[in-house]
Design brief:
single chain, about 120 residues, alpha/beta, two-stranded parallel ribbon, globular
């Protein structure tokens, strides 16, 4: 159902099958364990996600806020059209990326750059 891969200081969580009331607690425990280990930059790879219970979107939004409060970010990537529509309807489309690669690159773009003087 869930797998974690590490790319430098970013954890990519592969989500497969369904994300529903039946398995959301396992999902949230996984995210909480990443946060407790100071793994605060996370990409949720939705490429293998077929179904998302729309009632869980608010919980995902809460996790995004929690990761940002801890100095990191939680981004979502590679969702199918159905999942994208749910996220857009719930106002989370700004956190969505077309691919995991794009989401990973967005962390680099978020790093403040020093102005050369």
């Amino acid at each position: 159902m869930f797998e974690v891969k590490k790319y430098y200081d970013i954890s990519v969580v592969g989500v497969h099958g369904e994300l529903s009331q039946d398995n959301v607690q396992v999902f949230e425990k996984l995210l909480m364990s990443l946060s407790q280990c100071n793994e605060n930059n996370v990409v949720l790879n939705f490429e293998g996600l077929r179904h998302l219970d729309y009632k869980l979107v608010r919980r995902i939004a809460d996790k995004i806020i929690a990761f940002k409060c801890d100095g990191g970010d939680l981004k979502m990537a590679a969702a199918n059209g159905y999942i994208n529509s749910i996220m857009r309807a719930m106002g989370l489309d700004e956190e969505m990326y077309g691919s995991v690669h794009d989401a990973l690159l967005s962390f680099v773009e978020d790093v403040p750059r020093e102005d050369p003087q």
